[in-house]
Amino acid sequence: MSGGAQVKSRWLPWHAAAVFCFLYLPIVTLIVYSFNGSGVGGFPPRNLTLDWYRMLFADDAIWTSVLNSVLVAAAAMAISLTFGIPAALALDRADFPGKVLFRRLVLLPLILPGIITGLSLLMLFRAADMKLSLLTIVLGHGTALISVATTEVFAGLQKLDRAQEEASLDLGANYWQTFWRVTIPNLRLSIIGAALLIFTLSMDEIAVSFFLIGRDNTLPLEIWGRLRRGITPEINAISSIIFAFSLVAIVTWYRLRARAEGNAEGGAELVEAPVQGD
Amino acid sequence: MFSRAYRAAITVPPLVWVAVFLLVPYALLFCYSFWSVSVSQTIVHSWTLDNYRDLFRVNVYLQTLFRSMWIAARVMVFSLLLGYPLAYYLSFHAGARKELFYQLVIIPLWVSYLVRAYAWKTILGSDGVLNTLLQYVHVTQHPLDFLLYSPFAVVLTLTHIYTPFAFLPIYASLEHIPRNLVEASHDLGASPFQTFWRVILPLSIPGVLAGATFAFVLSLGDFLAPLLLGGPSGIMISNIVVSLFGAAYNWPLGAAISLCMLLLVLALIYLSESLEKKWSFR
Lengths: 278, 282
Known about the structure:
The structure holds two protein chains of two kinds. By secondary structure, chain A is an all-alpha fold. Chain A has a domain at 56-231: MetI-like fold (Orthogonal Bundle). Helix content of chain A is 75%, strand content 0%. By secondary structure, chain B is mostly helical. Chain B has one domain (57-279): MetI-like (MetI-like fold). Chain B has helices at 4-32, 50-57, 59-93, 98-106, 113-124, 129-136, 151-176, 179-187, 192-220, 224-230, 237-245, 251-279; strands at residues 36-37, 43-44. In chain B, a hairpin with a 5-residue loop joins strand 1 (36-37) and strand 2 (43-44). In chain B, helix 5 runs parallel beside helix 10 (224-230). Chain B is globular. The chains are: A mainly alpha, B mainly alpha. Chains A and B meet through helix 1, helix 3, helix 4, helix 5 and helix 6 of A and helix 1, helix 3, helix 4, helix 5 and helix 6 of B.
């Protein structure tokens, strides 16, 4: 920190504090009112109770949807990694016709509003006469989230020392062995990071699922259905629980990452690559 | 060093998958936008420009599109106004607490988007937290009803959701600024304000552009916040698309509107990328 050389005004910390209040106000409200006996809203909160949590634990529909969401997220993660890792490798070390288009297509769902991805896939499944179900949601999430796997792994590849792979090949390992024993272990941080990110994004995804839903609900769609019927603190309760789980996941992940390396920049490199390249 | 077979093995599977699940669907979207629906509600596969004509002739579509862009523009500006000074503060003045503050910006992203929108609903409603608080402390006698079911509520909620998205690239670009440039500017006699205006701000423009694009594009296509909090005056273009794909059953018109949205988004990405190129000093 060089200090003193930059604009330093007294309002900056206050602005930061205000932004944090703004960011956390709904989250704090959400958690506080999950314990509020007289329902959502109404100030001050009164009759603190665990009833909503009790009700939640007896609510089978919610837990079925949680299970569905976990299954979808796990399957989507498998698809995104299976295709996202080779896609990153291909962008890094292969030349083929349409590479620029391919890169753009892969990354597009990252920035495109979910509704467009969702309904164009709906058209595909309808053209293929596929019944909408959790499977169609898996395919949707898996496809949209390849972008995340690709950006994360591509960023990891930029830091990878190719000499290691070269050495492995020179020492007689074939490509398959080199891939599993050198490339993948070296990329493991990026891959774990991508996997966690994909899992959470899929758990939370609603715009794509909204169009691809069959009879079985994922958790966000179950919540959505209930919100349309009227609001109950049960939704606060399940959201608070999931928030707690996410917090544990983030802390674990950062511990892991901090232990392995100082800082990683996420996916900025892949997006910036064309600026230097073409 | 990589053999042909290796390169084929890493290229072909993702290429095929992306072709089937991204390229074909976008192509279908394109085709649908030129088809039509018959009276008996089946898709007529003959080419027509009717959907595009409707889109430009029926006022409600264009009006809603402009309203969505206006909402998205406000969200973008507010996210930048909240995100930029925060990123600047973190990058240059937060000292040892930098890492902690950074995590604090990220954590809200882990609370479901839908749940955060819902939380705002419970805050802004007529018997919601804010209104009952205001009555509790006797600021107002009657609940303020402009808070919920209005474009205001949509802008507020989307700003809340996209501020971290605007913050992240700005913070990354500020962190990339070599600190000796800032010191040099100071040593050469520039005031702190001049240093900010002439050195820091120009170097952070690529981050600002990326953040602005994220905030604008993602809020432009949002349909859940308007459904939950917008009321009739807060309807956005994606809500029309949703109804055309649902109850109204006019996929071709819905596809035409989506395609326009898609083109608009691509144009914005292109614009932001070329501006970014212009502003990146290498």
